[in-house]
Design brief:
Layout lengths: L21 H9 L12 H17 L6 E5 L2 H15 L6 E5 L5 H9 L2 E5 L9 H5 L6 E7 L11 H10 L3 E5 L23 E3 L13 E5 L2 H5 L3 E2 L7 E2 L8 H14 L2 H23 L4 E2 L5 E4 L3 H9 L5 E2 L5 E4 L6 H11 L3
Helix pairs in contact: 1-8, 2-8, 3-4, 9-11
Bound molecules: ligand 0PR.
């Protein structure tokens, strides 16, 4: 049988993952057979994980963060909800999030027995603080905001959400799974340095250009992470806060390599390139009469008819859509200007 090969990235406009930076790829290969889930045995990769958390703290304005490298944003969001539920004193916990929150919150709610209350977003697809305030009550354990939403790349008013959460003694979680590595180069107020956020998701395997799997989960203080700790009787380490047991040393090593290589200059350049591409595509689509949702971060959404998008798929393009049915293009590092030019040329064929 012919050896299977992964897809090329040259027509992928739908993904929130990308080709790893060469240094990240090399580090992933080197640490393939290591398990940060057993730090007593795999000491080097355990040290690398400490370094990863330190670097993630640098990116998110926290000089002394706690946390670990997760399997992805889903695990990090589940863990945030789990901490909030465990520390609260209620039998009927709920969490409040904007409707733009990723579907991993639905999984977290289901797994943890926490009711998920989603508030409508404002006309610009951002969290509407007043609408969320209406859903918060004495049983609210978590208020979540998104910094770089999956569909439109929008950033919620995080400081106001922190106030909303803390007014009812709930935790505030920020999901910057995708946006975390572009937001430092914008004017948004989204990170630990801007507000008393309790927990955060920020994934190296998205805009961070690390290999999959490398998600990131950070907590403001050690006691929050301790809410997750279970005893591990037969490991040399005595407790474990992660959701999974055996974990990817490749992910951890590649996250460190990518961040050491790219923070801050490489990420800044990538942000500017991706934004230029997104703005160029938005203008080209608008010039062709499509309704475009203006990009704030490098994601472009535009109303296109579905037969067109189906046909583009036949031509090899991988594009996704928003819940409202708009075409959605994520300008990841592998998405170049020339790629977008040939995409627009294909669109002009109609
Ligand atoms: N939070 C946000 C804001 C996200 O966008 C995502 C994933 C998650 C959490 C969950 O992260 P993990 O998928 O790492 O658990 N957003 C994309 C999505 O689910 C992920 C994705 C990645 C989609 C690659 C397509 C793809 O090819 O739509």
């Amino acid at each position: 049988m012919q050896r299977a090969e992964p897809q090329d990235f040259d027509r992928v406009l739908s993904s929130m993952c990308t080709q790893p930076h060469p240094a990240a790829r090399e580090a992933a290969e080197r640490f393939l057979a290591t398990n940060p889930g057993d730090p007593g045995t795999y000491e080097t990769v355990a040290e690398l994980e400490d370094r990863a958390v330190e670097l993630l703290g640098t990116v998110t304005g926290h000089p002394n963060p706690n946390g670990y490298v997760t399997s992805g944003g889903t695990e990090a969001n589940i863990q945030a909800a789990r901490i909030a539920r465990n520390r609260a004193d209620t039998d009927t916990p709920n969490m409040v999030a904007p409707e733009s929150a990723h579907f991993s919150f639905t999984k977290a709610a289901d797994l943890l027995g926490v009711e998920l209350r989603r508030a409508p977003t404002d006309e610009d697809h951002c969290a509407d603080v007043d609408a969320m305030a209406e859903l918060v009550d004495g049983d609210t354990v978590l208020v979540a905001g998104v910094a770089g939403s999956t569909e439109y790349g929008r950033v919620d008013p995080i400081p106001a959400l922190v106030d909303l959460a803390h007014d009812v003694d709930a935790l505030c979680h920020v999901d910057a799974a995708w946006g975390g590595f572009v937001l430092p180069f914008t004017d948004h107020r989204w990170h630990f340095g801007h507000a008393d956020i309790d927990t955060m998701t920020i994934d190296p395997h998205k805009m961070g250009q690390a290999a999959v799997p490398a998600g990131g989960f950070l907590t403001r203080s050690e006691d929050l992470l301790d809410e997750l700790a279970v005893d591990t009787p037969y490991l040399e380490s005595t407790s474990q806060a992660t959701l999974t047991g055996t974990r990817s040393g490749a992910g951890v090593a590649s996250a460190v390599a990518a961040m050491e290589e790219l923070w801050p200059v490489g990420y800044r350049e990538q942000y500017h390139t991706s934004m230029e591409n997104a703005e160029w595509l938005a203008a080209e689509l608008a010039a062709r009469g499509h309704d475009v949702v203006e990009p704030d971060l490098p994601i472009v959404a535009a109303d296109m008819t579905m037969p067109v998008t189906e046909d583009l798929r036949q031509r090899g393009w991988r594009i996704s859509k928003t819940g409202a049915g708009e075409m959605r293009v994520v300008c990841m590092p592998h998405v170049t200007h020339s790629m977008l030019r040939s995409f627009v040329a294909d669109l002009d064929w109609y």
